[in-house]
Amino acid sequence: MALHHFFASWAIEQGFTPKRLQALLGHSSIQMTFDVYGHLFPSLEDDHATFAAGEAQIWAARAAEVAT
Predict the structure, then answer these.
(1) Which H/E stretch holds residue 12?
(2) Looking at the whole model, is its pTM more than 0.85?
(3) Number of H helices, E strands in the chain
(4) d(CA 8, CA 21)
(5) Is the sign of the CA dihedral 40, 48, 53, 20 positive or negative?
(6) What does the alpha-carbon distance between residue 67 and residue 18 come to, in Å, rounded to a whole number?
(7) DSSP secondary-structure letter at 40?
(8) Quick one: 58 exposed, middle or buried, by C-beta within 10 A (0-12, 13-18, 19+)?
(9) What pLDDT, on the 0 to 100 scale, is given for residue 66?
(10) Contact 15, 46 (CB under 8 A)
(11) Could you give the CA distance from residue 31 to residue 47 in angstroms, rounded to a whole number?
């Protein structure tokens, strides 16, 4: 069972979607997947932080282009 949990946490970290993980783990419902592994998926706050960091990189690259 430990390998099962290791694989699930690794797959989530790699960006596998919940539905894909459900299929790979053989869960009968997405609810089962979220009940067991839901705490490992990125939160809405994580998504906002990732988006903000990406936006900052885009603006920095654009500023560098304009400066040259």
Answers:
(1) helix 2-13
(2) no
(3) 4, 0
(4) 7
(5) positive
(6) 43
(7) G
(8) exposed
(9) 84
(10) no
(11) 21
Written as six digits, the tokens of 61 are 């690259």
pLDDT digits (tens, 9 = 90+) for 3-32: 889 999 999 999 999 999 999 999 999 999
- Structural domain including 24 reads 2-67
What pLDDT does 36 receive?
94
In this predicted structure, what is the pLDDT of residue 28?
A: 96
Burial of 33 (0-12, 13-18, 19+ CB in 10 A): buried
Based on the structure, what is the number of domains in the chain?
Answer: 1
**How far apart are alpha carbons 27 and 46 in whole angstroms?**
26
Centroid of chain to Cα 68: 36
Of residues 2 and 44, more confidently modeled: 2
